[in-house]
Structure formats: C-alpha cells, structure tokens
Amino acid sequence: MVRLINNENIKRISVLAYKILKFQELFTRIKEFNNPGVTPCVYAMWHENQFLVHGIPDRSNLNILISNSLDGQIVASVCEQWGFQVCRGSSNRKGSVSGTLKLIEKLKNGENVAIMVDGPRGPLHQVKPGAIVLAREANVPIVPVTWYSPEFTFVKFPSWDKMASPVGLCHILNLYGEPIYVDDKSDEQLIKEVKTSLLSLDEIVAQKYLEAKKLKLWKRK
Length: 221
Description:
The protein is an alpha/beta fold. The chain is 37% helix and 21% strand. The N and C termini lie far apart (51 Å).
C-alpha cells in the first residue's frame, strides 16, 4: 500500500495545507486577554489548543518543537511559512534531547517557546515534564494559555485530544494565566501548578469571553 505522505508529494501537501490555513486566517479573529507580556517565556497549552499559537504576538520570536517525521515536515513547512520559528526533534531519546537543547538555547537568547504539555500522544490533560525542564534550565517563567469561542464555527475534531480549530468566521479569545516561576519548587510541584492553572483557565474562559465582548475587543482596531 502506498503511503499517502511520502518524499515525492510532501511539498505539494505542505503548499496545499498552508493555502487552506492561510485562507482560514482571513476569517479568524483572535484577541488576547491578560497576556503578562513576559519575554522570554515558555507558553504552556493543552495539545487540543495548539492552534492558539496563531494569536500569540511576534511569531518571529516564537519557537515550536516539531518532530522529524514526514508528517512533522509538513507541519514545520506550514509553520515556517506562517512566520514561526521551528525546532526539529523526535520522540526517541536522542531526538528528544537534541530538540530540548535547541529550545533551551532559544530561550537563553531571549526568544519564546510554545509547548503542548500533554502531547504529542497524551494522556489527555496529563502534564509532561518538558515545559518544566525548559523553564528550569533557561531560568524563565511558564505562561499557561488557553483559547475559546462559543461560536459554532469553533470546531472540535474527533481526535484523541479533541483538537479545536476555527472553520469559517470565528471570534476567539486567547486567555493567559499568571506566570509560573521555577524558583526552588520541585518538578512535581510545578507540574501540579501548570495543570491547575490550565484547568482553571478552561473553567473561567467562557466568562472572560463575555467580558471581552462587553469591552468590544473585536471591534477595536
């Protein structure tokens, strides 16, 4: 059986994927709420909310870790065309260490990093230590972030993580939590703090969306 994604068609698929997402961008309206504006930092999010990076300002200063697989090559190509910085790594030990070291270097150079803390394969909403390692080694804070829209065009797909994405005109809120500093906390404490913060954001984001709507954020230039 011929694999759908291979070295021969990967460029065409990458171009098509970028064109589709670029077209959707015309109808995507993302506003920020409570962004602490700390740089450098590690933005921490659930895997289901990975597309929220689209609403984080200064893409040229935001690094995303993407696997070395063929599938990852498509994602990396799209992210680079969109203006993000990409670090390649893999799930094996050698690739994981290499990717982590690249991201630490980026943080120490004053750039930001986005991490899907329960990725790439779950379990759902179980924080893995990757973001903690990065924050500790680079001595930077972790900034939890989620996104939300009540509109029917904010679609959740039937994947393991129930990934959310706008499909058509959609008004979305990126909601940030307070920065989490490493200090002298243990890994277990930090993992718990990140999870608690992300779950808390998910609980209040609908109300914050209403507040943002009253403030007419989407009507401001």
